[in-house]
Amino acid sequence: MATETPGRETQETLSNLLTETRRFAPPAELAAAANVTAEAYEEAERDRLAFWERAAERLTWAERWHTTLEWNAPFAKWFVGGKLNVAYNCVDRHVEAGLGDRVAYYWEGEPEGHSRTITYAELQREVAKAANALQELGVRKGDRVAIYMPMIPELPIAMLACARIGAIHSVVFGGFSVSALKNRIEDANAKLVITADGGYRRGKPNPLKPTVDEAVAECPGVERVVVVRRTGQEVNWTDKDIWWHDIVDRQPAEHEAVPHDAEDPLFILYTSGTTGKPKGILHTTGGYLTQTSWTHWAVFDLKPETDIYWCTADIGWVTGHSYIVYGPLANAATSVIYEGTPDTPHRGRFWEIVQKYKVTILYTAPTAIRTFMKWGADIPAKFDLSSLRILGSVGEPINPEAYVWYREHIGGNRCPVVDTWWQTETGAIMITPLPGITHAKPGAAMRALPGIVADVVDDKGESVPNGGGGYLVIREPWPSMLRTIWGDDKRYVDTYWSRFEGLYFPGDGAKRDEDGDIWLLGRVDDVMLVSGHNISTTEVESALVSHPKVAEAAVVGASDPVTGQAIVAFVILRGEAEESEDIAAELRAHVASTLGPIAKPRQILVVPELPKTRSGKIMRRLLRDVAENRELGDVTTLTDSSVMKLIAEKLPAAK
Ligand code: ATP
Ligand code: MG
Question: CB count, 10 Å around CB of 22?
Fold first, then answer.
């Protein structure tokens, strides 16, 4: 019987298919010395605002706030009346506390041998000089500065220099095209652009300046372009351009950090564009730094005296903003920054870096973990990874199989894995295990952090009982929440606060298991409706990835005359697995036995690659276009558009 696809409003909530029984308790030693104990949850429950006040007290304020939270729903102000300087908190105060010789960043360039060590004292001088340079160029508090750079030390230095003088930075990922850069410069109306001649990527210099030249030619509001010399490649020069070393190097190494209002804007950052047109997310000063620094300390159990922390994200994404720059520096951590790709010059590069710097905390993304699985466990096995003690994951739901692989082959079965759920919009981690407390389940983000009130609700916004599935929501404002979409309050209200009255809706599906723990099930836009059941792409993908021959999978619902939507799966096989005639049948049977017959894909296609955003997330909407034989939608945030051709060619061969 044909089933009509009902409107999203009338659908039942998510079917809950996956059962996972593996559990990992925190290592006893780690638990005994953990920064945060289970009491934090109770404290925050007793008095949420007092909990966040204590977190804010970890920072140095020039003036204390008078009101912790002013909530004119959905517009929040945190630590109202408080004044602080973010750059002072991230750099100067550590030097004043006698930590000037501590390494802030071990920078590792992609070409081997390009490395640099930057102490907090050096960082203080570099940031002061850069702040003086920005002021000489006429940048004032509230002005927007676009930053389009490779992963080099001048990138965090430029961000901190902006923060220091109260200019609002808008970092644009260095892989973006002319039009993406131009749109972001225009939307924020930036008056200055900071860039570099190029950066190293996949073994060769990758030019950036030509992209900036083309974009700036169409942005008359840009007055100057500051250019860092990184690769030494030939560049075109215009009268707006000035070399970083010409303007920054001659500046005094002192700069007075004036305090800014807790609610002064800190930065604009555009979302990754996985679902459509990116949104300019606005973050402010006091609440953002409070939550990024507290979560970085709590979730990674950071011991700043001894830990070597490495987040592999690009600073052009929010993960890099919050967990390479602001969180770690506010905590006086020692971090690694790596410029290049994981396979240059060889597929063991990440593990070589872990070994070289004796990294203790590693924070990476499921897309990277699945790639390492595909390459094989023998590669990390060649390196000494015994320094590691905590592993993190962010960006997409982590498939249980990828989690277990990560734990075993990278973490030696001794490191807890924290699966951290958050977004550009939330500014900082929201839902995650805590490494010294949580008995973690592979694939589950588990529980909202102390001070965060998350829930899973049905269509009407009512909490679902344990065992139920539905929509993830946040019930109360949090310090690092976005304040608005830049220049568009209406879009802010419509996008996040209109689906459920009084609740923040991030756009993700979730379930609450029998123990009350939270599992993220992918974006609600990706949820499939098969014979009247809402089925999550994440669960079907995880079932596919649990087959020993599959490294990565993407699943979409394509319209089907019988079932409403039918499941179409795209899979990448593991290194050693061969594509064979029977593989599709074998995988379909595997899904049916893991999740039940309802989740059995109609088609399975073996593909060489999947379409991903530049932040590494699978773009299912493009696969849906392919599966339904439509013209492809917006591909501007796609990493490599030739991938879609390769995939489309596979389609007629589908079983
Ligand atoms: P856009 O909003 O423009 O479509 P995006 O959502 O990919 O782009 P980000 O803010 O970088 O932009 O990503 C946040 C999203 O990533 C979350 O809403 C969620 O869908 C996904 N995500 C991040 N971490 C996790 C996690 N640990 N588990 C599940 N999903 C996650
Ligand atoms: Mg999003």
Answer: 12
Q: How many CA atoms lie within 13 A of 200 on its CB side?
A: 22
For residue 533, the CA-to-ligand 1 centroid distance in Å is: 24
Ligand 1 site, residue 263, Cβ cutoff 6 A: no
DSSP category for residue 369:
H
CB neighbours of 40 closer than 8 A, spacing ≥ 6? 51, 298, 450
Distances (CA, A) of 392 to 1, 238, 318, 403, 591: 46, 44, 15, 10, 28
Which of 18, 171, 267, 272 best tests ligand 1's pocket when mutated (most atoms within 8 Å of CB)? 272
Enter the CATH code of domain 531-650: 3.30.300.30
* Dihedral over alpha carbons 450, 91, 165, 482 (to 10 degrees): -20
CA dihedral 342→346→352→356, nearest 10 degrees, is -100
What does the pLDDT look like over 73-116, one tens digit per residue?
999 999 999 999 999 999 999 999 999 999 999 999 999 899 99
The partner residues of 192 in beta bridges, in order of sequence, read: 145, 224
Question: What letter represents residue 332's amino acid?
Answer: A
Quote the strand ranges of 244-368, DSSP E: 260-261, 265-270, 280-284, 308-311, 334-338, 361-364
The structural domains of the chain, with segments of one domain joined by +, span 531-650
Omega of the bond prior to 74 within 30 degrees of 0, cis? yes
Q: For residue 12, give both structure tokens.
A: 């039942």
371 alpha carbon, distance to own chain's centre: 17
Instruction: Look at phi and psi of residue 239 and say left if phi exceeds 0, alpha if psi is from -120 to 50, else beta.
Output: alpha
Where residue 488 falls among pLDDT bands split at 50, 70, 90? very high
Strand order in the sheet with 454-457: 454-457, 469-474, 508-512, 518-523
Can you give the pLDDT at residue 511? 95
For residue 388, give both structure tokens. Answer: 């590691």
Q: How far apart are CA 313 and CA 110, in angstroms?
A: 14
Instruction: Using alpha carbons, select from 315, 331, 287 the residue that is nearest to residue 428.
Output: 287
C-alpha 528 to ligand 2 mean position (Å): 18
Cis peptide before 597 (omega within 30 of 0): no
Identify any residues that bridge with 418 across adjacent strands, giving them in sequence order.
Answer: 392
Kindly tell me if the per-residue pLDDT of 647 is higher than 90. Answer: no
Average pLDDT on 268-285 reads 88
Ligand nearest to the CA of 541: 1
Q: What is the Å distance from ligand 2's center to 200 Cα?
A: 29
As given in the structure block, the two tokens for residue 297 are 């300390």
ipTM of the complex model: 0.99
- Position in ligand 1 atom list of the atom nearest CA 273: 3
Residues in the chain: 655
pLDDT (0 to 100) of residue 8: 42
What does the pLDDT read at residue 652? 57
Query: Ligand 1 centre and the CA of 423: distance in Å?
Result: 5
- Which among 274, 314, 518, 622 is the best mutation to test ligand 1's pocket, defined by most ligand atoms within 8 Å of the CB? 274
Q: In Å, how far from its chain's centre is CA 476? A: 22
- Tens digit of pLDDT for each residue in 605-644? 999 899 998 888 999 999 999 898 888 887 777 777 788 8
Q: Which atom of ligand 1 is nearest to the CA of 523?
A: 20
Ligand 1 in reach of 395 Cβ (< 6 A):
yes
Which numbered atom of ligand 1 lies nearest the CA of 538?
Answer: 29
Could you tell me the two tokens for 314? 């690009």
Q: Is 344 annotated as a binding residue?
A: no
